[in-house]
Structures
1.
Amino acid sequence: MSKFEGQQHAGNMITIDERTMVRDFILLPYIDTMVSNSLKEIEYSGNILKRAYSLAGQAIQRRIMQDTYQLRKELKQRNIKVLEDGQEELIVYHKIFCRGYQERFGMMRDVMRTEISLRLTKYMAEIGVLLKELL
């Protein structure tokens, strides 16, 4: 293999930023499902603040949809496709197709839980800032 071919191949490989985008793209549907389940629980609860919780949850879902749309668009522009590739033990796998290069991307479930928790905390903090500005 010539020096040029190696450089060309490296240029097709996924970057660290793109890998982060892929990770977020994979996690967002899980976050959306968790928020949906929580909204259903709230709906059937007798909690007197259920309307407020429901509105906050819906706002978070809108942000998740916006982020998913933006990531999908950005990944498409960069010629990156992500497909589910099953689960083994405690790892969830996806196939990443990136500019002719293919790799299997695995995430451990406990890492996913941590990342989901961090992302949800970020979304809730955004809602908190908006509420504080209103008050």
2.
Amino acid sequence: MNAAAAPGLHDGAALAQLVGEAFAHAQGHAATEDAAEVRAITDAMVRLLIGAPLHSDGKLTIVSLAAEAGLRRNKLTHKHTGLKDLFYALVKARAPLPEGVPESLRARAAKQQQDLARVRAERDDLRIQAQLMARIIQVLEIENSKLKETNTALQRQVAAHASVPDLTRRRR
């Protein structure tokens, strides 16, 4: 598929298409299996980036890319690492909102992203505080148990000495 002939493609999809063609051409005819894999991966990239998956759930992950290309995931993680890195870069570079979205919606989306980052940071802080509180409670429970044992031992000692008359008190 030629990127110029497909005006509906996003920039990332067009780039994936061009890079795939360049990889396939650079490998030449000696490695036709590799060229077929590169073609399948880049075609899958294009379908995922434009939001038209045929064989996967459409998520922008390596697992979905491998499923969309009809290959095992290790082909991307071990053999075609350049294409994997390209896919991650294209996903990261995607605009969060398509072109033509009003500025008020872009501002709202940016605010929501900031709020989400703030809430995640608060959640992480609260998680750390909860772990600290759990440790403190464990230490206090151990100390309380030891104090109860000490108190019980002291009460036994007092009870044992209760039968001995107190000579310090004088009778009048």
3.
Amino acid sequence: MAALTTSVVPLTGLRFDTLLVAATSGGDDCATGAGVLLVVQNTDAATKDVTLATPEVVDGDLDVADRTVTVAATTGLTVIPVTDRYRDPSTGRAAITYPGGVTGVKVCVVRTATS
């Protein structure tokens, strides 16, 4: 599992297509929080799924379902908010997997500036 670096988007803007890196077949992890976004690019001819693990439980034993986002084939970019709901208490980071494979998938993580 690779740790994705979070780039802060300054108020003057940020070109993030140069920040995209190949998704890791074993999954990636990233920071969570307000304004944190996972940017996914899929250049493959097949749709790809991106799953964010949700470590939360309710009523003490009911798992909250993981969030899976399907990224269309040969698309530009898909942006997925990574709120603290996905924060694993043991690592402090969100776990990301790609159950459909990583061929043609690039990712980066950005966080908006607060002021």
